[in-house]
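User: quick one, sequence for these tokens?
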């Protein structure tokens, strides 16, 4: 069984000059194992976020580890925390 999580870039904790949505993040996660199965990024510097997701997928890192990581601020990578937030 898999689930999908997504958020708009403006909703993330990224750079403060994001005053409106300029894209989105999406991830497909196995709900039984927490493993990230795939993702999509549409927005500025999306390739940087995809590289992080690629490494997590290749290393079989569960989404909870990515969510709980501390990322530099302000960076686009902070958006992964919002993407994987379970609230």
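Assistant:
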């Amino acid at each position: 069984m898999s689930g999908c999580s997504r958020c708009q870039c403006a909703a993330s904790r990224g750079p403060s000059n994001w005053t409106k949505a300029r894209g989105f993040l999406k991830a497909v996660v196995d709900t039984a194992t927490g493993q990230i199965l795939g993702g999509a990024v549409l927005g500025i510097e999306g390739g940087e976020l995809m590289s992080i997701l690629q490494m997590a997928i290749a290393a079989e890192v569960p989404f909870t580890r990515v969510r709980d990581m501390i990322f530099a601020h302000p960076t686009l990578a902070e958006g992964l925390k919002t993407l994987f937030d379970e609230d």
